[in-house]
Amino acid sequence: MDGVLSVEKEVMLPQSLRERLWGFFVSQVINLPKDAMNRMKSPLYVCIVLVVLLALTSCFKEERTPPVEDTLKKVVTRYNYALIDAYGRQIYDTLREVTSPDELRRVGIIVSSYYQADQIMESRLHKLLFKKVDVNGNRATVDTVEDWSYRWINYKNGEVVEPLKQIHYRMRYHLIKDREKGWVVDRVEEIEHRLKESSSRDER
Questions:
Q1: Alpha-carbon gap, residue 21 to 147, rounded angstroms
Q2: Helices and strands (DSSP H and E) totals, the chain
């Protein structure tokens, strides 16, 4: 089923409001007169206090952990934007966080070979749709549909080596669960690609 990134979160009261509610409740209990303290022994009062405590406790619940599917989608999204930094600016910080050593090495070899030929790639991700996510223990695959545009330029003189192209991809990402980093991209498989016509606006 088609999907987009969405991280489900529980609705929580702002921190300051929760603190004020809790502080007010505690102060009221501490400052109760003796006759009121005696009334606290009644079953009705006990029930009211329990309800208030449960309501306040719910405000302090931690955010739910995102489902594995959402985590995988976020990793694939970060991976793609990390490729833009790697190919265009030789920045690998994010890529190191979301890839296995093998995949990081593979990308680094490709980027370095072009850079030694004085070329860098300027790219832009226009669309990223998630079509299918499969999880099997500590391994997973994520199928996507993507629209990219890119061009190769000589970083020394700014000349265009390869003009702008727009390409439609169907991709499959193979992920593994790293002991320290969590889910990372281990291998990328291109299922299909086709060239799209570039508009004059995109060539600016």
A1: 49
A2: 6, 4
Task: Indicate the DSSP class of residue 99.
Answer: B
Tell if the pTM clears 0.85, that is, is over it. Answer: no
SS3 75: helix
Residue 185 sits at φ, ψ, to 5 deg, of -80, 125
Q: Tell me: the pLDDT tens digits for 135-179?
A: 999 999 999 999 999 999 999 999 999 999 999 999 999 999 999
Beta bridge partners of 182: 178
Tokens of 7: 């991280």
Q: What does the longest C-alpha to C-alpha distance in the chain come to?
A: 88
Coil vs helix vs strand at 40: coil
Tokens of 197: 């016509």
Q: For the segment 119-132, what is each residue's pLDDT rounded down to a tens digit?
A: 999 999 999 999 99
SS3 assignment for 116-180 = HCCEEEEEEEEEEEEEEEEEECCEEEEEEEEEEEEEEEECCCCCEEEEEEEEEEEEEEEEEEECC
The single residue listed with the structure tokens 């029930």 is: 47
Element (H, E) at 204: none
